[in-house]
Amino acid sequence: MIDLSKAIALQMQKSALAALLAATLLYSCASPEPQEEAAPDADAPAPAPEVALPPRKPSPEGARVWFVSPGDGAALTSPFVVEFGLEGMELLPAGEIGENTGHHHLLVNTPLPRMDLPIITDDAHMHFGLAQTSVELSLAPGTYTLQLLLGDDLHIPHEPPVMSEVITVEVTN
Ligand SMILES: [Cu+2]
Description:
single chain; alpha+beta; Immunoglobulin-like; 2 domains; 6-stranded mixed β-sheet; binds copper (II) ion
């Protein structure tokens, strides 16, 4: 148990430092330090460190994903089916933790995302978190790049990442 008066004195020093920091940060447009609590608790733990990202899960040697279909350069009419191939790992629904497991993500007309963060979800980053092995797509006419990227239970790519070649398809209707 920390002596209360010492704790308050320490808190005041911290507050002064925070105010100084906040004034400094105004110039850099960064968020000011959060306000110190008005009534500090002597038993309060030290400020929590930044939340650490979970470590990337390892992928086994030889693991690979690929497009069973369509083939690179295919001319397609919507809707068309994209089939995912996987070797050396097993599919598991998102949220389920296993060894050498993950689920497919289909990247459409987008470069690879950051490998140390969960893959975002939008039209260009499709998740197949129910462990699906294919999808029926309807895309407007145009040229598209497609790439598969496996993600773990938290949608984070493995280390090393398990990803397909980039293929290019032409949607003609
Ligand atoms: Cu995912």
